[in-house]
Amino acid sequence: MHLTVKVLNGEECTVSASPSSMVTDIKEQVSALLGVPASGQRLTFKGKSMLDSKKLSEYDIVDGVRIMLTVKKTDNKDSAVITASPVWQKMLLFLKRHFKEKDADLVLKEFIKNFDNGLSSLSLDDIERLATSQLQTQIT
């Protein structure tokens, strides 16, 4: 069956599913089509929130219905950094090829935290030595 998932901003997509599909399956398809992380999605049908652990048949969903998508707002500093930085976006895409989306997000957040800690522990002299060694390798 085909379902339409509509975002409040007017954007929508069509996903394929069966009555035995889980809500998480729909979220993964929406994530791939609209770029909204599954963890940031809230799906509703007939005004009721859909639980990830339930099958579509438990909500009496049939072919052609419309499901509403609300994107959860996050106050997480790391999320803002990830979306703002092309480097972190590329890293996240790489991680998603090897991990589930939720796990990839956690790995990236931990990586960013370790990266920030490493940078904050560098002194100005350390940075100067690093820059000088990189410039010397560029010249040779």
UniProtKB/TrEMBL annotation:
Cellular component per GO, a single term: BAT3 complex
InterPro entries, alphabetized: Ubiquitin-like_dom (IPR000626), Ubiquitin-like_domsf (IPR029071), Ubl4_C_TUGS (IPR041421), UBL4A-like (IPR047154)
Pfam family, one: ubiquitin
Superkingdom of this protein's organism: Eukaryota
Gene3D superfamilies linked to this entry: Phosphatidylinositol 3-kinase Catalytic Subunit, Chain A, domain 1
Keyword Cytoplasm: yes
GO molecular function, one term: protein-folding chaperone binding
Keyword Cytoplasm: yes
Cell location: Cytoplasm, Cytosol
Annotated GO biological process: post-translational protein targeting to endoplasmic reticulum membrane; tail-anchored membrane protein insertion into ER membrane
Location (main, coarse): cytoplasm
TM stretches of this protein: none
Keywords: Cytoplasm
Ubiquitin-like domain location: 1-76
PANTHER family cross-referenced by the UniProt entry: UBIQUITIN-LIKE PROTEIN 4A
Protein name: Ubiquitin-like domain-containing protein
Natural source organism: Patella caerulea (Rayed Mediterranean limpet)
